[in-house]
From TrEMBL:
InterPro entries from the UniProt entry: AglB_P1, Oligo_trans_STT3, STT3_N
GO MF annotations in UniProt: metal ion binding; oligosaccharyl transferase activity
Protein name per the record: dolichyl-phosphooligosaccharide-protein glycotransferase
Keyword set, alphabetical order: Glycosyltransferase, Magnesium, Manganese, Membrane, Metal-binding, Transferase, Transmembrane, Transmembrane helix
Similarity-based family: Belongs to the STT3 family.
Residues of the Archaeal glycosylation protein B peripheral domain: 804-853
Length: 872
């Protein structure tokens, strides 16, 4: 590569602290305009005050410098008084800055001329240096090259590593070198591609190796808690035993799609029960099981752990985006790993929709924060806008309750627009990316509804309505900005607009119906026997101590920080943190109402706890402070340093003090969800029995207590969805009409599992009759309920609904005849006791469920598949 000389290029460094040097420069023929004033001996004011922005050396040729009081068209005699000290300070600052930049630029160009292969390494070095101080391990230079770069003054030692001495000078030298190499280089397509490749390589994100290792450790802790403590209870004897009850509903949905041989891309032919429910979640499970070639239950068992890992990564990115501090990201992931409520609902085997919902919730939050952070400098990250739109659509299609999770998105948009008005920003320009994301989300959901038949109407149009509302708010904010409205006046106008929008929704029947259903659902809070629908502060969950069992001490660490951030975002314009404030308070309110929403509150509790923890370590002089509330890009992202052993030990002790209770509670909570041995053994018995008897629907379908009914049907391999009929179980047990309930149930049920019956059940009820084999003096009765197995130790009895055998005969009119028999079930014998009542003519008829010989009055009757006949 041939080097060409540059005009005004300095070949040596000049000591600007020397008065003789300054005089020499002032009288030099290359700088005639500097001879206009004497140069007193004044020490330069180090460090010099660099200008905030500096034109590129290539765009501004070297020119004689003009003092600030003179300029083109002005005489020296016209200038204002300018003291010698001021003149010397100005001269020293500007000469030093230009001379230093030219000198470093020349050194860089000289090094590149000697070793042109270093250009890509210099570009990578610029990219790494953009993130702040770095170490030798962070840059792609060998020790020899690195030593040469340091010896030439291009790299300076900083407090926390190394920094480039002058990024602008080095960048200018690299670009100048590329341009001087070949004036026609850009005309060559191959060189154009190479240039683009070099630029992409230069701007690739830097990776802090220590932060990466710390993140891996935090994620490993997350996996260990979720998978390590429940592995043996999920994978038993070759069976996959999912935890809790709801995951079995999704197993059934996926099995229906696989057994009916629906094409993987035939998405418009899904059954309505799937297409109008948690359709995207079911489709992703279906695709995963089909493409991996594994059982549906295996995918459901492992998916929550995978979702937790991805969610942890998203939380890390969110924390670093907000704080520019990787330590906060690592601490947040660690706290999320040990949060009991999150550990439970993302544990191995808990294949419910929660983990999938959290992925999209965190994706939406991250994209929204990125867009909010960039409002202050007028930029728009179109990648974040696209991610926002896709995540909104995915969130809507993932869960039938998705509008609850989308509502804080609209509230955040409203709060951000208010912040724009208060800060004097143009809401219309700043909200371009936000509205684009909302619009994309609305377009995708409406397209899925129209083209594939997915989602009921109210869910399909929810993102579109959200986009419309946001657009109206932005338009109103633009009007407020143009006409100089006060913030209070705009907030009032915004409230009126929101009220009008809500009223408009209420008069549209397809939208008003689901909204009223939503209200009715929350009116039942605490009235149903379902743990997750109770309030977080309900008495059965510990009242005011309940957060300890759900979040440990993290709840009490995070909520004060949330309050402080609320005050800070009210006082100053912090649009990124404003999103966290809105989401935090919103989900805290829902968690207070129903326990199930604590899982979506968990990531925000972890984030705020991580922020609080790192701040506490800085306050205790164990770590450096957090660069909070600085404009994006003004502070490099801080990495992870290895502290001294004593400092590290103190940080660990502090972490144990804060999270120690979580370390105990999280594994215990995961264990509580496991399917107990009695239920598993009953399930395996049902599996063997239905296979041996070759039972099909409805004879293989089980009715049981609601929180185990899906487990039993999973083992009996029934394709029936029993959830909607599980409420019949308690009503049947309380009834005094066993025959009537048989007539009601036998068309869709074949087996009944009675577990832990009430020992004081009222006499004459179905529960009392079915529980007799479990009494101290066991016996059998009823007509259509045949006992097929008994587990007295677990207080479980399984009955099969049968048509039975019809016994008829005559006796004394209007009298009661006793019926006696001895029935063998398994290896045990039970007395069967029943009665037959004759009518006015002395006839009687009754049904018995077992084959065998019965004694009716003074007659002996034998019942078999061919009927009941009198025994010889």
């Amino acid at each position: 590569m041939t080097r060409t000389s540059k005009p005004c290029r300095r070949a040596r460094r000049i000591d600007l602290t020397s008065a003789s040097a300054l005089s020499a420069v002032a009288t030099s023929p290359t700088t005639p305009s500097l001879a206009w004033a004497p140069m007193p001996t004044v020490a330069p004011p180090w460090p010099s005050l660099r200008p905030r922005s500096r034109p590129s050396p290539r765009s501004v040729p070297c020119q004689p410098m003009t003092p600030p009081s003179t300029g083109p068209g002005r005489k020296v005699s016209d200038r204002k008084p300018f003291s010698a000290n001021m003149e010397s300070r100005w001269f020293n600052d500007n000469i030093r800055e230009r001379w230093r930049m030219d000198d470093l630029r020349g050194v860089t160009e000289s090094l590149l001329a000697e070793r042109p292969e270093l250009e890509p390494e210099f570009r990578a070095l610029l990219a790494v240096d953009a993130d702040g101080p770095w170490t030798f391990d962070d840059v792609p230079l060998d020790s020899g090259t690195f030593g040469e770069v340091v010896s030439r003054g291009l790299v300076e030692e900083a407090a926390e590593g190394y920094r480039l001495a002058d990024r602008a000078a080095i960048q200018a030298a690299i670009e100048d070198e590329a341009a001087d190499a070949d004036p026609d280089r850009s005309a060559d397509p191959e060189n154009r591609v190479a240039k683009v490749t070099d630029r992409l390589r230069a701007v690739r994100p830097s990776i802090d190796r220590r932060a990466g290792l710390a993140l891996v450790v935090a994620l490993a802790c997350l996996v260990a808690i979720r998978a390590g403590f429940g592995f043996g209870s999920v994978f038993r004897n070759g069976d996959v035993v999912l935890t809790s009850n709801d995951p079995y509903a999704y197993w059934r949905h996926v099995e229906v799609l696989r057994l009916e041989s629906v094409g993987l891309f035939d998405l418009g032919s899904l059954p309505p029960a799937i297409a109008e429910s948690d359709v995207l979640f079911v489709v992703v499970l279906w695709w995963s099981a089909s493409l991996l070639g594994v059982e549906t239950a295996t995918v459901l068992a492992w998916y929550p752990v995978v979702a937790a890992v991805v969610g942890g990564i998203l939380l890390y990115l969110l924390a670093v985006e907000l704080t520019a501090d990787r330590r906060v990201g690592i601490a947040s992931v660690l706290f999320l790993a040990i949060t009991p409520t999150h550990a439970v609902r993302t544990s191995l085997g808990f294949g419910d929709h929660d983990g999938f919902d959290l992925l999209w919730l965190l994706s939406i939050t991250l994209a929204l924060v990125v867009l909010a952070q960039q409002r202050r400098d007028g930029r728009t990250n179109w990648g974040a806008a696209t991610a926002l739109g896709v995540s909104i659509a995915a969130q809507t299609m993932a869960w039938r309750g998705a509008p609850i999770l989308l509502a804080p998105l609209g509230l955040s948009a409203a709060a951000i627009v208010v912040d724009d008005v208060r800060a004097g920003r143009s809401p219309l320009r700043a909200s371009t990316g936000l509205l684009a994301g909302f619009g994309l989300g609305g377009l995708l959901t409406v397209a899925a509804h129209v083209l594939l038949g997915w989602l009921p109407l109210f869910r399909a149009v929810a993102p579109a309505l959200l986009c419309l509302g946001a657009a109206m708010l932005v338009g109103l904010a633009d009007v407020a900005s143009r006409f100089g409205w006060s913030t209070r006046r705009f907030v009032l106008a915004e409230g009126v607009l929101g009220g009008v929008g809500l009223a408009a929704v209420l008069v549209v029947p397809p939208l008003a119906g689901p909204l009223s259903g939503f209200v009715r659902y929350f009116e039942t809070t605490g009235t149903r026997n379902i743990a997750e629908t109770a309030s977080m502060f309900s008495a059965e969950h510990g009242s005011i101590a309940a957060p300890i069992f759900l979040f440990g001490l993290l709840f009490f660490l995070a909520i004060p920080v949330l309050g402080w951030l609320t005050f800070r975002t009210y006082r100053d314009s912090e649009p990124g943190w404003l999103v966290i404030v809105v989401y935090g308070w919103y989900f805290l309110g829902f968690a207070v109402v129903q326990l199930r929403f604590t899982v979506v509150l968990a990531p925000f509790v972890a984030l705020l706890s991580g922020l609080s923890f790192v701040h506490a370590t800085a306050w205790l002089d164990l770590a450096r402070p957090i660069p909070l509330f600085e404009p994006p890009g003004t502070h490099p992202r801080r990495g992870i340093e290895i502290p001294e052993p004593r400092t590290a030990a103190l940080v660990v002790v502090l972490f144990v003090l804060v999270g120690g209770l979580c370390f105990v509670q999280a594994p215990l909570s995961v264990q509580e969800l496991r399917i107990e041995d009695s239920t598993y053994e009953t399930g395996t018995w049902l599996e063997e029995y239905t296979a041996a008897e070759n039972l099909t629907y409805p004879e293989d379908t089980v009715l049981a207590v609601w929180d185990r009914v899906r487990v039993y049907n999973y083992f009996s391999t029934s394709r029936w969805e029993p959830g909607r009929y599980s409420r019949d179980y308690s009503r049947m047990l309380a009834s005094q009409d066993p025959t009537g309930w048989y007539q009601r149930l036998h068309t869709n049920t074949g087996l009944i599992v009675l577990s832990a019956p009430n020992v004081n059940a009222p006499s004459g009820t179905v529960e009392a009759a079915l529980a007799r084999p479990l009494d101290a003096t066991p016996s059998l009765t009823t007509s259509h309920y045949r006992l097929v197995t008994l587990r007295p130790g677990d207080r479980i009895a399984i009955y099969r609904l049968v048509e039975g055998y019809r016994i008829t005969g005559t006796g004394p009119a209007e009298s009661t005849l006793p019926i006696r028999a001895s029935v063998t079930v398994g290896d045990r014998s039970f007395p069967y006791r029943h009665t037959a009542t004759t009518n006015e003519s002395g006839h009687y008829a009754l049904t018995v469920p077992y084959e065998g010989q019965y004694r009716v009055g003074n007659r002996t009757i034998r019942c078999s598949e061919s009927g009941c006949v009198a025994a010889g």
